[in-house]
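Write out the 3D structure for:
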Amino acid sequence: MDPTPERKHLMNAEEIAALIDRMAQEICDRNKMADPDDFVFIGIHRGGVPLAERLVKSIETKAGFQPRLGTLDISMYRDDIGMRKTLPFIFETRIPFDINGKTIILVDDVLQSGRSIRAALDAITDYGRPAIVRLAALLDRGLREFPINADYVGKFVDVSPELRIKINWHEYAGEEDYVYTVRNRKENMA
C-alpha cells in the first residue's frame, strides 16, 4: 500500500518485531521473581490482542514458561458509547482464569489519550481484584487526557495531535504488519 497524504507509514514489520522482542525482555527482567501461576496477560481488543499473543510467545522463549493469556472487550465501558454515530462491534472477552491476586500485564497497541485504558481498568474490576495491574503498549504518543502511563513501552512516538497512530496487524489485515498515521476524526478517538 502506498503512503498518501492521508496515510503515512512510520514503521515496518521488522521494526515492530524488534520492539516486541525488547518489550518481552524488559517484562522478563522486571518480573524475575513473579510466580508463573500468578503472572497473566490480558490483551485489549482489538490491537492489544495480537501484541499480547506475541509478547507471551516471546516471553515463553526467553523465560521458559508461557504466561496465561486473556482478551478483554471494553466497548461497553467506554465513556463515548452514546456519542458515536454507530454502535460498536463487540468482541469476546475471554479470561479463562481467576484474576484475584494476580499480576496482570494489560496490553494495548497504542497509548493515545488513556481513555481506552481507563475503560479497561473498569472492565477488569468486574472480573476480580488483581494484586497488580501493569500496562504494556507498543507505542506511546503522550497525549493524555487521563493520568495513565505505560510501565512497558516499545517506543515513544511524537506526531501531530491532528494525526492518529494506527497499527496494521497481520492477524486482522492478512498483510504485513506496519504502523501508520491517519488524520484524526473526533468520532474515532480512543
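The mean pLDDT is 90.
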